[in-house]
Structure formats: structure tokens, C-alpha cells
Amino acid sequence: MAFVDHKGQFIACIALSAVLTMDMGYTMTQVHFANPLGAKGWRVSRHPIRCGLSLTIPNYGIAYFEQYAAKPPHFILRTWDEVQRFLPAKIIVKTPIWKAEKPPILVGQFIVKPGEYGVFLRRDGALKLLTFLSQGYEPNFTYRAETGFNTMVSLSPVGFQKPYSRYQECIGNLLPFGYEQVRESIFHYKEDGRELSDEDKEQLRRIARYVNADAQIKEIRVVGYADANGRKGYNNAISEERARIVQKYLLKLGIPKEQLSVTWVGELYPIARNDTDAGRAANRRVVITLIKR
Q: Which residues form the OmpA-like domain (predicted)?
């Protein structure tokens, strides 16, 4: 049951349920953490690179589904009081009250781990929980806490449908690529080449889209390089041209000039030998790196 003060304000939502008999010969109460009726329910956070669907569980922590651009979804159950050791646990699902009463379903077993994110379920587990919730089922996480209490944490299906629909819409609008696909890009050139290929331009468009979506990107670093097949002055000049052309294209795509750091080093810092065609081809390059805050 929930406890309220004289003003009717919510104080705690620990429900003390049936008394269980423990092996040690005395009784221990089961502690039940749940989101009470009338409290704020599921919330959605929407962004081009991240979608989240979360539920705050009073006196326990927060449960949330999360998916980043170009990555699979996952589920996290985070408790305010981190556990200090590994605890065996189960996921048990209860049928909706409007369906014929059936025994609870054991969905799986897992380990509550020490640290901030005690429960972490990857794609299959997260999708399974989302499906149960969308059908009105109530997932419950049960384990024996370090204090000895039998603990149950419930995810309420009440008010889940509308936030879930918005969450699905968000996932449908995620960027089709993530940070790892644009974190570092390397463009290569033919001998004396300086122009961008169609493939290079497409990657620069991806970079611009990602930078516009991720406020954590503080700088786009562009560095031009050359091979050693020529005079040092020429190699320095062509490495500058390569870097400047990349800069110009990013500016055309709307990247602020102050967000760009553009340098060139000529034939310095080769990544391959300059006495072979393949080595020189590898050294003729521009490297674009996204730097986070």
C-alpha cells in the first residue's frame, strides 16, 4: 500500500506484501517498489541521435529503454542505492487484469551487478519487455537484496501506449548513422589531386547532419597531408588546398566557421612508406575528426 501525509501528498510507495518464510527460521517481509496510480508515468525523450522511454520508480530509481542512432536498443534499471555484489534475479511477468487470470510468466534470469546500472538488458531482452508492456502485461524484477529483503520492482503498463507510440516515432526518425560512422573520416587523392569525390561529399553531408544534431561536438578538426613525391613547398601547398576545399564544403553545408579547425602539414607524419605507389597514395589524404566536449 502507499502511504500519504495529512495533505494527501505522496511520501513513499514501498508496498509491504505477503510475509515470506526464510531458510534461517524467521520471517522476512517482501519489499515492493512500484509507480503508484496517479503519479507521473512513462516519459519520452526525443532527439535525432537518441530516443528514450523512462519510468521513475519512487524510492528505488529509474527504468528506461534507450536507443542511439545506428545502434540496437537496450534497457537499464538503475537504482539510487547501488548494490555492492552480484545478486541473482528473475523477470516475472503478470497478466493484465482484464484478461483471464493466469499464473505469472517467468521470462528470464539475470544478475543485478554492482555499479550505477545494476540491470542492463541488450536488444532481445529490451524488445521483449517493450512487447509485454505494450500488451498490458506487468514485468517484475525480483531478487534478494543485500539487506536480506526479498525485493520486487514493477514496471507499470498503465499509461504506456501513448508514450510508447511517440518513442517508436522517434526511433523511426533517428539518423541512419551514429558517432562512430563520422568520428574520423579519411579522404584519399590521386597524384596532384585536390578535388572531392562524390563519396567524399556524401560523407561530409553525413558529418554536417550529425554535428547539427549533437550538441556535444565542439570542434571539427581538418588536417591536410601530402606524399613526399615533390618539393617540400609544393607538398605543403597542395596539402593546404586539400584541407581548404574540405573546409569550404563544410561551410557551404552550414557548419559555423568557428567550429572548424583547419591545418595542413605537407609531407610530415606519413602513415606509409613513400617509396611505393601504394604508400604515396595512402599518404595523400585529408583527415576529418569530430571532437566532443
A: 178-293
